[in-house]
Amino acid sequence: MNLAKNLAQRSHCVKAQVGAVLTKDTRIISIGYNGPPSGTHNCDEDFPEEGCPRDSKGSCSLALHAEQNAILYASKNGANLEGSTLYVTLSPCIACARVIFSMKIKKVFFMESYARYKGIPVDEGVEFLRKFGIEVIDFGCN
């Protein structure tokens, strides 16, 4: 989790900095942090005051989430994610949870609540993962 926390600091997002680490069989297989696709822009440089444009739900319209970046990088490089473990500094949103489930990641550790961060009543992503048999562990002191 310390590596995920350190990776979060690499994010150029002015709203939230999130890091993710994928492991399998005691090895790190991929890392990621939240931000726009490579080669597009950096929020802290292009939108330093207000952050990048928001979508209809108030979320960043341009960035990929940390877990998406870690999963995409692993997949791009041919890693088999089935049975892997994800460490992420912010619990997965519902969209990321669907991707995590689809990639057959077996366990997710998180530090902070996405619901608390977004001001919504429930961590939908955590509930989704648990409903479908993925072990989700609150690693933080929430």
From TrEMBL:
One of its GO terms (molecular function) is dCMP deaminase activity. Keywords: Hydrolase, Metal-binding, Zinc. InterPro entries: APOBEC/CMP_deaminase_Zn-bd, CMP_dCMP_dom, Cytidine_deaminase-like, dCMP_deaminase, dCMP_deaminase-rel, Deoxycytidylate_deaminase_dom. One of its GO terms (cellular component) is cytoplasm. PROSITE patterns: CYT_DCMP_DEAMINASES_1 (PS00903), CYT_DCMP_DEAMINASES_2 (PS51747). The keyword Metal-binding applies. One of its GO terms (biological process) is pyrimidine nucleotide metabolic process. It comes from the Bacteria. Its cofactor is Zn(2+). Belongs to the cytidine and deoxycytidylate deaminase family. PANTHER family: DEOXYCYTIDYLATE DEAMINASE, DEOXYCYTIDYLATE DEAMINASE-RELATED. This is Cytidine deaminase. It comes from Emticicia agri.
